Amino acid sequence: MTVEVDMKALLESGAHFGHKTSRWHPKMAPYIHSKRQGGHIINLEKTAEALEKALPEITKIAASGKKILFVGTKKQLKDITKAAAESVNMPYVTVRWVGGILTNVETINRQIKKLKDLERRMASGELEARYSKLEVQRYQEEIDLLNERYGGVKEMTEQPAALIVVDACQDKNAIKEASTLKIPVFAITDTNVDPTNIDYVIPANDDAIKAVQLILDYFTAAIKEGEAKKEA
Questions:
Q1: Torsion over CA: 34, 36, 40, 44 (sign)
Q2: How far, in Å, CA of 135 to CA of 78, rounded?
Q3: What pLDDT score was predicted for residue 2?
Q4: How far is Cα 139 from Cα 48, in angstroms, rounded to an integer?
Q5: Which residues of 202-222 are buried (b: 16+ CB within 10 A; e: fewer)?
Q6: Alpha-carbon span 207 to 188, nearest angstrom
Q7: What gap in Å lies between CA 205 and CA 209, rounded to an integer?
Q8: Host H or E run for residue 92
Q9: Do residues 191 and 28 touch, judged by C-beta distance below 8 A?
Q10: 3-class SS at 132?
Q11: Which residues, other chains included, contact 184 with Cβ-Cβ below 8 Å and sequence gap of 6+?
């Protein structure tokens, strides 16, 4: 069953409120309905159309068994992005996009290997047996730092088949890397964003947690549908 998009729910979530007209990007003009009190109003019909086009593609990718990388490093969105990714067992980046996660895999894999090795040695008691409490504490701090940077992708063994980005302006570097590698990008795109390198533009308010959560729910539902098809 295809995931159904509810226009009323999008409206109630505040997905239609764009940025001030002075901050808009002209390439977002096709997705803007009107102006109100100095701000742009996003055309939610376009949002629904974009989701109805994007969700079957997400389902198709999930049904193939490939991974979809969730990206959301904006402070107020990182927790819901992480929760969404974990709910469907997908990788995520929610603290900081470290340059090269996609385009410099060799270097990133070295860091992940180091993280896993330190975690293994810490869990086995090897570090505690060999070093002082202060030194063990420093190793733990290094583990925590590496987990902050790479924890969400440390089990990502191959290039993701797609990116879901919850704030295209905040995480433009992730979009740039994906574009370089021709990895399709599905991104929530507010009125201040240049949508040029985004394959599936989802025009919506990226500052409203309720709106972002709703769209993430659509994406995770599409992934679950794809996984169900794979199992069938």
A1: negative
A2: 31
A3: 77
A4: 48
A5: bbbbbbbeebbbbbbebbbbb
A6: 10
A7: 9
A8: strand 92-93
A9: yes
A10: coil
A11: 57, 161, 162, 163, 178, 199, 200
CA 105 vs. chain centroid, Å, equals: 18
Written as six digits, the tokens of 220 are 């995770």
**How many CB atoms are located within 10 Å of the residue 40 CB?**
24
Please report which confidence band the pLDDT of residue 231 belongs to, taking 50, 70 and 90 as the band edges. confident
Residues 30-67 pLDDT 10s: 999 998 888 999 999 999 999 999 999 999 999 999 99
Query: Rounded CA gap, 179 and 80, in Å?
Result: 25
Rounded average pLDDT over 91-116: 94
Q: Is the pLDDT of residue 232 over 80?
A: no
Taken in order 224, 179, 166, 13, the sign of the CA dihedral is negative
Burial class of residue 180, CB neighbours in 10 A (0-12, 13-18, 19+): exposed
